[in-house]
Design the sequence.
């Protein structure tokens, strides 16, 4: 499918419709040439309202439940480096175990080689150029992109792959840092530098819905994980990851005022969990206070748009 730079002038919208009639059928530009038109904003609001789901207790468990007994493509399967493959939380191991069949794809050749040596099916390929060698292995019932979209420069890649390679009732599951997580919001307001420097952007719900619709897909579900303290790890594993500089940081650096280290999450975990529990109380509901999307991670499920 041709990738069109969708500007908001009539010429580019016409080009989008011509090259992608499937996506155009469900896109806001059918109704208006103005993305600020309240009618199309209302349509987007209805899409999001239909997609909202209750918080998910555990990211890995959610994904393994959805891939159980299905044919799966795991995109970005290496997850940064081979050291993470020894972790009990390495997503691909759980996906491969639960799925009927699973093949991983990544651009990191050393990681893919290590996976093959460990007995996993994986290929080196850049999905920016389409499914390539994976096309003949599809269609896939589930595509998984765990903690990946925030790293890739080509945002169309995942959605184009899903449009090309998903089965009729298939799902693309995307997990990514939640831009609205209270601790992340507070760190941003303070100007703290603490996140993975390879992160390019935060994927927010309406943006994911827009990317899906540009490819004839729809945002079907959206939820965040339940705020909870991360499982503690053994001192030896902590030391190994610290030496390798591959551990998940809870601290960063202040970029405003006096130069100093900044604690980003440690002192806010309990506050976030308390706020999340409080949002479900009768008093908070009566006051109209909702804090549904406060978890660390957003989970998006994208599916094919209905034909009617």
Sequence:
């Amino acid at each position: 499918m041709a990738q069109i730079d969708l500007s908001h002038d009539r010429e580019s919208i016409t080009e989008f419709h011509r090259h992608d009639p499937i996506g155009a059928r469900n896109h806001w530009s059918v109704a208006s040439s103005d993305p600020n038109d309240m009618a199309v904003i209302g349509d987007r609001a209805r899409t999001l309202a239909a997609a909202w789901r209750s918080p998910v207790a555990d990211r890995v468990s959610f994904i393994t439940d959805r891939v159980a007994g299905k044919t799966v493509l795991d995109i970005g399967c290496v997850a940064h480096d081979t050291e993470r493959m020894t972790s009990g939380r390495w997503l691909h191991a759980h996906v491969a175990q639960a799925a009927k069949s699973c093949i991983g794809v990544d651009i990191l050749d050393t990681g893919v080689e290590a996976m093959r040596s460990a007995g996993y099916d994986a290929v080196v390929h850049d999905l920016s150029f389409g499914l390539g060698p994976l096309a003949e292995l599809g269609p896939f019932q589930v595509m998984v992109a765990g903690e990946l979209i925030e790293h890739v420069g080509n945002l169309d890649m995942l959605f184009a792959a899903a449009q090309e390679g998903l089965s009729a009732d298939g799902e693309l599951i995307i997990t990514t840092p939640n831009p609205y997580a209270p601790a992340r919001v507070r760190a941003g307001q303070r100007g703290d530098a603490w996140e993975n420097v390879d992160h390019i952007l935060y994927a927010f719900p309406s943006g994911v819905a827009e990317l899906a619709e540009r490819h004839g897909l729809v945002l079907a579900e959206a939820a965040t994980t339940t705020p909870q303290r991360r499982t503690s790890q053994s001192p030896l594993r902590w030391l190994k990851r610290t030496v390798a500089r591959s551990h998940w940081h809870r601290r960063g650096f202040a970029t405003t005022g006096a130069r100093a280290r900044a604690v980003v999450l440690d002192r806010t975990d309990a506050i976030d969990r308390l706020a999340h529990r409080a949002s479900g109380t009768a008093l908070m509901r009566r006051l109209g206070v909702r804090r549904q999307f406060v978890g660390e991670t957003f989970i998006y499920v994208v599916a094919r748009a209905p034909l009617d």
